[in-house]
Design a protein that fits this description.
By secondary structure, this protein is an alpha/beta fold. The protein has helices at about 15-30, 45-55, 70-85, 100-110, 125-135, 155-160, 185-195, 235, 250-260, 270-280, 285-310, 335-345, 360, 375-390; strands spanning about 30, 95, 115-120, 135-140, 145, 150, 165-170, 200-205, 230-235, 245-250, 310-315, 320-325, 345-350, 350, 365-370. A hairpin with a 2-residue loop joins strand 5 and strand 6 (about 150). Helix 1 (about 15-30) packs parallel to helix 12 (about 335-345) and helix 2 runs antiparallel to helix 10 (about 270-280). The longest helix has 24 residues, at about 285-310. The structure holds pyridoxal-5'-phosphate.
Length: about 400
């Protein structure tokens, strides 16, 4: 018997569907609506701020472990401006290498081997790997279709909590379903966390990408301040996914714990970009309204196009993803469908089953990203129209 090539804890996480689908897009010349990265960069003045920082020698050497003070202060201003939350820039903020590192460091810091971690299924693919790296046991609570949205069943969430549950890993606005948890749903999650004395790590990277609804941070509910690790990132809000600047806000003891893990993952990252993101966070309301309105129009364009092409569409209230059901097209297997889609009509999407433990539950669902130029989405919609015919 040879030695297994990948450690047992990570054996199930060898390759991602995104690599396969992106390679397929390149090979077939298809439009890639699989992976969620914008095809237009963020604001010019923010790019210029990064150039200035590089030229002025700010952040070219190891920045401070918790992040540069300018950015930590900008994060606290952001929390006050949008949510009325008071956060201390010195003890309650930690800058990370994107939300991805924030999630990893939080789980590594807070989960003991054998602890159960509840996550909303389908979930962002790094969650399962990070729970595994921490030696935790993931317990999925499945969001289920209810009319034209996916909904959290609060009774199911409550029933999933056991004596071994350490934390809930929440994501709202939710990738891939586009669900934004309502005020009442968040209040119920908070109540449960308080009642069962659970920690909550909440991934709010799409906090500004909400349409016709409001995003409320879970930490603002009673009893949550001392048990919530809130995570966000510049990647989605400012369309700089390659910069990998994220942040954690939490009570001092929690930030200290997460920082202890983070310092041995990357120690620090993205020095000059931290200064640029500090400026981005202070952009006027018009910027935030602008990106939201732009994405809302793109959501409608793609959602209408997918409906016309015969998909059942779950119109998202947040994020830049649309989940669809392929069964009205006479299909049931999202993997097979996505593998054939580039040849059939020149578009790439991803099967939601990759975001599920219960793969059968996710099988008929397929995700499309709409953070692309209008002309690209219009072309994709035109190509998808051929599906019903062919
Ligand atoms: C729910 C969710 N969390 C985290 C991330 C990663 O964020 P970052 O690029 O800041 O690491 C993504 C990116 O797709 C995401 O969808």
């Amino acid at each position: 018997m040879g030695r297994p090539p990948l450690g047992r804890r990570l054996a199930a996480f060898g390759t991602t569907i995104f690599a396969e689908m992106s390679a397929l897009a390149v090979r077939t010349g298809a439009i890639n609506l699989g992976q969620g990265f914008p095809d237009t960069d963020g604001p010019e003045e923010v790019r210029e701020a990064a150039v200035r920082a590089l030229r002025d020698g700010r952040g070219n050497q190891y920045p401070p472990g918790p992040g540069v003070p300018e950015l930590r202060t900008a994060v606290t201003e952001h929390q006050r401006r949008w949510y009325g939350l008071d956060v201390d820039p010195d003890t309650e903020v930690l800058i990370t290498a994107g939300a991805t590192e924030a999630i990893a460091a939080s789980l590594l810091a807070l989960v003991e081997p054998g602890d159960e971690v509840i996550a909303l299924e389908p979930y962002y693919d790094s969650y399962a790997a990070c729970v595994a790296m921490a030696g935790g046991v993931r317990v999925p609570v499945t969001l289920r279709p209810d009319g034209d949205i996916f909904r959290l069943d609060l009774d199911e969430l409550r029933a999933a909590v056991t004596d071994r549950t350490r934390l809930i890993l929440l994501n709202t606005p939710h990738n891939p379903t586009g669900t934004v948890l309502t005020h009442d749903e968040l209040a119920a999650v908070a109540e449960l966390a308080v009642e069962r004395d659970l920690l909550v790590v909440t991934d709010e990277v799409y906090e500004h990408l909400v349409f016709g609804t409001a995003h409320t941070p879970l930490v603002s509910f009673p009893g949550m301040r001392e048990r919530t690790v809130t995570i966000s990132s510049a990647g989605k809000t400012f369309s700089f996914t390659g910069w990998k600047v994220g942040w954690v806000t939490a009570a001092p003891e929690l930030v200290t714990a997460v920082r202890s893990a983070k310092q041995y993952l990357t120690y620090v990252s993205a020095g000059p970009f931290q200064y640029a993101v500090a400026e981005a966070l202070r952009l006027p309301d018009a910027y935030f309204d602008g990106i939201r309105e732009d994405l809302r129009a793109k959501r409608d364009l793609l959602a209408d196009g997918l409906t016309d092409a015969g998909f059942q569409v779950f119109r998202p209230s947040g994020t830049y993803f649309i989940t669809t059901d392929i069964r009205p097209l006479g299909e049931t297997d999202g993997f097979a469908f996505c593998r054939s889609l580039p040849e059939r009509c020149g578009v790439v999407a991803v099967p939601n089953a990759v975001f599920y433990d219960h793969q059968d539950q996710g099988s008929p669902f397929v995700r499309f990203a709409f953070c692309k130029r209008e002309s690209v989405l219009t072309e994709a919609v035109g190509r998808l129209k051929g599906l019903a015919a062919g």
